[in-house]
Every structure is written in C-alpha cells, then in structure tokens.
Amino acid sequence: MTAVVQSAYGLDGIEVGERPVPAAGPGQLRIKVAASTVNPMDWHLATGRPGLVRLVEGFGRPKHQTLGREVCGVVDQLGPGVTDFEIGQSVFGWVIGAFAEYAIAEVDRLWLAPKGITNFESAALPVAGAAAMEAVERGDVAGKRVVVNGASGGVGHYAVQIAKASGAQWVAGVCSSKNAAFVRGLGADQVIDYRLDDFTGERWDVVIDCIGNRVGSEIRRALVADGRWVVVGDHNKNGLLGPLPRVVARLVRWRFGSQSCHWFVQREDSRYLAGLAGLVDEGHVRPHLSETFAVGDVRAGYERIESGRAVGKLSVDLTSATNAELTEMTSEDEPRS
Ligand SMILES: NC(=O)c1ccc[n+]([C@@H]2O[C@H](COP(=O)([O-])OP(=O)(O)OC[C@H]3O[C@@H](n4cnc5c(N)ncnc54)[C@H](OP(=O)(O)O)[C@@H]3O)[C@@H](O)[C@H]2O)c1
To answer: What percent of the chain has pLDDT over 90?
Structure first.
C-alpha cells in the first residue's frame, strides 16, 4: 500500500513509499483510510524536537515510520475478539500510521464518525478537538468570562466553540486581524487582535492558552482572584526538554494562592471522541479545514504547521493514494504501541 513514511528525523526525510498492508491483531481493527490531518504533534514527531520526543519515539531514528496520528475511514477488518464495531462502519479516532491506505486502530481509540460532516472534517476532530474539550473541562467555564489565546488555530477554534456550548458567559478569541472574521464566525463574543491589543489588559475568569507566549506574572494580573490558566501549548519547541522545565516550575509556583494553573497531556480516550461526535451532531461544533494536502504533498502541511500560521485544521486526502495490491502481513511484523 502507499504510505507517507520517514526513516530519519527531519522534514527532508518525509517521502511517499510502499508498505505491506497491516493486519488487525486482537483488540484491533483495520481501517481503509479516507482522511487524516497534520497537527503540531506530527511536526514534533517528524522533526524529533524537542529532544525529549526522541527518548519516547526512538533515539537514533523514528520508531514509527509511517506518519500521521488521526484518522477517519471505514472499518475493513476486525481483529480477534472485536465485537464493538462492524465492517463497513465509518469511524474516527487516533492511530499510529494514518498517512497510509490502511491503518490499524485499537478499539478504545475509535468512535463512530458523526453524521452530517465529511470524512475530512471527522478526521480533524480527535487530536485538537479532545485537547480543546479537556481544556474547557479544566477551565470549568460555565457562566464565566473566558479568553482563548490562539483562537484561530486547530485547538483554539474548537475551544471557542466548545466553551460557548459549555455555557461560558463571554468568550473572547485572540488572533490576528486576518483571522478576526473567522473567529467571530465560530461564535466568539469578542475578538482581540494580538498585534493591536493585549488580552492581559482585561480581567478574565479563565485563560485557555494555546500559544504559551506570556509569562505567569502577566497571566496572574489578568485573572480574577480564583481564575484558572489552562495551558495547552507552548512556543518553545527546542532544546532537550522544550517547555517542560518552565511548565514544571510554573505548576509548582501556582500551587500557592487561589488562582490555579492547569497543564495536561491530552489522553487518547474514546470518551472525548463520543463527546465530540455529540457536539457535532447537536450543531455546537464544526471543524474548519483551511487546506487539504494530497499524499505526495504532505510535507507542505508540516511546513505550514512550522510557520505557526495554520488556520483551523490542515487535512490530508488519503483517497489520493494509489491503490496498492493487498498483501497481508501479520500484526507482529510492524511494532505498534
Ligand atoms: N497539551 C496537549 O495535550 C496538546 C494537544 C494538542 C495540541 N497541543 C499544543 O497546542 C498548541 C496549539 O495547537 P494548534 O493545533 O492549535 O496549533 P496551530 O493550529 O498550528 O496554531 C496556529 C495558529 O496560532 C495562531 N497564533 C500564532 N501566534 C499567535 C499569537 N502570538 N497570538 C495568538 N495567536 C497566534 C495563528 O494565527 P495567526 O496566523 O493569526 O497568528 C494560527 O492560526 C501547540 O503548541 C500544540 O503542540 C497540546
């Protein structure tokens, strides 16, 4: 089958290659992939930056050489013991190796794709949607004044919609002027152009921070006495540990006092997929795709992420892969985690 692969860290190493079609093992199913996306996480995994990524994903070269981590497609094979899904169902969720004609998924990382949106839109939900959902949960936003820093990005555009759906009293989105109309269209009550205004000049109950470009003292001043700073992303992508030392120091410092700082690594839990599908079905959330990349052009998607200028989500069209001959291999042939 055709797949987007990488045998060495760095965007130069990304290429289209051939891989055997994988077979579903116990508790797994195989998906005929329709669509995936490129996320900042994909960029970290492909570049091996910060260095911490290599400790987890392979020191010398990437452990998982087929790229892509979120997916929408059709169930095409059930592994032994799988009874929760049926062949032919349209599903979405997290996988390892989404940029391929076929991908293997664990049953607890999948959910039925929402009706009424495209495969491309469903594929854009798991990574950024679940992060936004967890951020909104940690912000406990009902009845509160919320600001989303980075409202035009993948996570931010979901956070605005989910905060509104969760009963936030006022939601402001921080973005540049070129994305102001887009963020208003998501339902934001206020748009703050970060090139002209400073969101820390106002008072907020909750800051959902997808950018991480402000220091703690600025956020403290901008929060009410029991306000919450929910840190989703950080601008520091380099060094061995990236933002980790700063995050740890911040979490220690913010243990004292009534204001709180929340940081999380988003869990691949199908509870979030079910929640996102429900929000889509009820009309509260709609993924926004700004660009779609063909299989042979996926590297351009990574470069767009690297630029920091992606709007909403960037999708990858797996129907653009040529149909390779289906040669089965056993599930042991390719290590998965
Ligand atoms: N904690 C977790 O588990 C978790 C999960 C998912 C993602 N993340 C992290 O969350 C962060 C956001 O992810 P994402 O998918 O939303 O990224 P993204 O889509 O690549 O974000 C790009 C957006 O950021 C905006 N932006 C850039 N600089 C800005 C600034 N100074 N102020 C406000 N907006 C700015 C850009 O708008 P303009 O072009 O208008 O500037 C662009 O629309 C990343 O660091 C990612 O690694 C963490």
So the answer is: 88
